[in-house]
Amino acid sequence: MSRWLCILLLACATTAQAAPQAANPDDMDRFITDKGLLTRLEDVSHKVADRAHTVADQASSLVVNAMGFLGVPYKRGGSSAETGFDCSGFVRAMYEQTVGLLLPRRADQQAAATQVIDKKELQPGDLVFFNTMRRNFSHVGIYVGDNKFIHAPRSGAQIRVEDMGVAYWARRFNGARRVAGTADGESAQAK
Fold this sequence. Notes:
Layout: H1 2-17, H2 25-35, H3 37-67, E1 79-80, E2 84-85, H4 87-98, E3 101-102, H5 107-112, E4 115-117, E5 127-130, E6 139-145, E7 148-151, E8 160-163, H6 167-172, E9 173-178, E10 189-190
């Protein structure tokens, strides 16, 4: 997105230096049309809007898909609905099935492979990390909105939605991350 904006600005700056001094609005309109600046701006605008819709659609699909696994049992090392999921196996499976991106297997590796964001910037589909085993990034879930996340919590439990404001989770919150592959193709590997 910023690459297109830079190209457009560079094109405008280059052509603006060669622009004649416009005496009236008709001359300026003719100049803009002759240089194709309006067409270029519209093209960039459409590409940015299309990309924003794609990212939003992916996040929505990710959350809806994840909700379909509510009630699936936790299984340490699990990575399928048939056998059960652990936290990172669940996140990895959701991204692979829904977005087509293959995240690393462990929660700490997922944290390292994703983009740090501020908690205030959380959007559905982002990852939330917690220190549940006396080490950073030992637990991961998928943010679903309204300060809630979906995850595979622990042995004997099932995939469920939790409120991040609950004291247990609030004290252990480690950070928020965005899977850059859903926005610009970096960090996560495409299948």
